[in-house]
Amino acid sequence: METRQQERGQGHIRTGLLDPEPVTEVDEEMVSDVDLNNTMTDEEREEILSELTKLEEEISTLRQVLASKEKHHSELKAKLGITPLSEFKQNFNKSWYDMQTSTAYKKTSETLSMAGQKTTAAFTALGTAISRKFGDMRNSPSFKSFEEKVECTVSNIKTKVGSQGGGGSFEEVLSSAAHASAQETPSNNMSESSDHERTY
Hints:
- Keywords: Coiled coil.
- The protein is 78% helix and 2% strand.
- By secondary structure, the protein is mostly helical.
- Among the domains are: 34 residues; 47 residues.
């Protein structure tokens, strides 16, 4: 008896200890799969078909009423001057306003504003640094020497063009001035300027 109860819990019923094959119990799912249409009478079937026909007629009537109401709706909008484009604009403006008042938009806007301010500050600092470097470079001795050579060359060109009275071409004057300034060295210029200072 104990063996029979133990095996019943495992889904089998054994009639004896020596039976080789277990007898399986009937599943509850199989009972629910029974076709209930076989139990329907012809009278019930006709009643269901009649109800189905009535529902289809009501659906058709409701569709006609809905189409009539939609037509009346569009006529009223046309009388008020509401066009699909104006409706679209109104919906767009409302959506835009809703988006701008959302917290996500506000946070994104603030973040972009801060990033813009930081970028502006960085470019300002960069511009200041570049200006300072150019100022330092312009005050350097090598730049001043270069500047003096350019000034000397320009004055030589002016002198030669004015003294020759138009006798030579501009290229000849320019090359002779460049040749003359190339022969002058900064030490010669410094000794000449110190001689001029002593005489004054």
